[in-house]
Amino acid sequence: MKLVDTHVHINFKDFHSDLDVVRDRWLSNGVTRLVHSCVSPDEFLQIQAIADRFPEVSFAVGLHPLDTNLNTVGWNPEIGDRIKSLAISDRRIVAIGETGLDFFKSDRKTDQIAAFKSQLRTARSLNLPVIIHSREASIFTREVLQEINAEAPDQPIRGVMHCWAGNPEETQWFVDLGMYISFSGVVTFKNAHDLHESAKIVPSDRILVETDCPFLAPVPQRGKRNEPAYVLHVAESVAKLRNVELVTLAAQTTSNAFMLFAIA
Q: Cβ atoms within 10 A of the Cβ of 9, count?
């Protein structure tokens, strides 16, 4: 059985002391590929160095909506130019992101939307998918995607709603827009009732699993540092919710990850 953790942050300091051991654990749990997300282009060299060490790591480049640069100086188009330049500099880059909107911790909507639109256009110009972070912003995220898609109807944005926590109605919005939906450790929490229902309705060819480590460790590891090996627990929970065998869910999500991110 093979799994792909489609969203990790193993460059964070949480992993500086034992990353080789962490890798042994993810391999032992059948995690054969990882997609490393990026919260700022300033991380690029760190993430690239990890991919140099571990050939199973592919990665993205982008600017998170809550990145320090965005919140202190506002959106600067030069950041977009830098993201695009970095994206074409390494064949292991499989996505733009993470980008998106987060109105839970910040209300700087104008800057966030400008950054989001820029990165969506970059992704389309490079024929790359996007990794989308959306928190307390589903309506705005949908509207931005609809606007950008209207600019080039024959080239709709491809991508994934990462660490998805939306209700079934919101989930259907993004499925209808052609997006993949990725479930994290949150889906293992017993009180995440709306998310449990969402996990049941995503088409089998659009569903992904992730850890978003080091955050949001799943049950039974909740409260600990999260790590890629724990994507197995996410897959187990999603399989149970969908009433399918774990091996079936693993095969579906692995195939979907390979398709979306063009990895093998």
A: 20
